[in-house]
Amino acid sequence: MSVKLNLNYNVSAHRVLHDRKMRDMLPIMRDTGVETLWLFGYFYGRFESTLAEIEAANKYLVSEGFTVNRAISLPVGHPGNALDGDISSHTDLTIPDTWHYRVDGEGRNTYFCAAIDDVMIKDNAEAARQLRDIGMTKIFYDDDLRTSSTSRIIGGCFCEKCLKSFAEEFGTYYDRQTLHTLLRSESNEELTEAWTAHNCNAVVKLLKAVTHEGLTSGIMVAQGGKRRNGIDIPLIKKELPGTFFRVGEGNFRDEDFEREEGKSGLIRSLLTHKELIGDVSKTYSETTVFPARALSPENMVEKMRIEVKNGIKNIYLMSGVWLIDEPYWAAIKKAMPELIALSEQN
Ligand SMILES: [Zn+2]
What we know:
With 346 residues, the chain is α/β, with parallel strands linked by helices. The chain has a single domain, classed as Glycosidases (TIM Barrel, Alpha-Beta Barrel). The protein has 12 helices and 12 strands. The longest helix is centred in the middle third of the chain and has 22 residues, at 189-210. Strand 5 (101-103) and strand 6 (109-114) form a beta hairpin. It binds zinc ion. Zinc ion binds next to helix 5.
């Protein structure tokens, strides 16, 4: 079955209902070719808008002709501020006191990113159930559900509690420093594999807990993301066959994208993940500008062009909580006939 080029974007329910600028932007987005809107869901342990607002905004957007009934959540938060790209707003990036910050191999808390533990899994599962109950059928889980801050670093939480839970499974206890040194040197293959599998299983456990009846879940895969970052695409497909994926995260700013490695890294990562996913209908791009306006409209279109040429059909535009503004919509609209034609050839 051929899959048509489809533009996705995400919006805040609260802003859809209460912000004139957002309301005025909706026809512009639709006119550009955005068909599917994802509503901000559960971020850092709290709902971005109230459930009543999400339900009302969903109905309103459906009446405006968009495909909705879907949400995007940030189940673990995110290392650093990768959400609030506009200094004029004040998004709360802390995690609940009942969760715990992921501790890196050096013993530092990763602000503002939670480790996957039973409490946050339970809270995320409950949030997903509530979103399902108000009509959401798909939820994308964004940002560092992978367990490391970059794809170069082996993931996992090195706090005492998590180290003990790993020791119970593996049979030998390692303190943080020893474990970190052994993992970094990759001198103990069995240990590296066990630690990697432990982290990948935690991601699958979370995904299973949030995937209630009537819901399918999607997961973001960071650029270059792999098992060492907690993302085991074949395992996720085996355990949760309906899961959809977002690939190609990275190059949010002109200076990153314009480097040769920006474009070649994007293509390499995208093709690797696309091959593992094996289903274009379940594969989404991550076409992000962050912080606000850091990637020019021309470069955003060029990124879309690369993604479409490499066979991605679901283009997912992102901008943190900043609303993409007119020059971007105008540039995308102008490029759409070319992108549609390219999509039909690839
Ligand atoms: Zn921990």
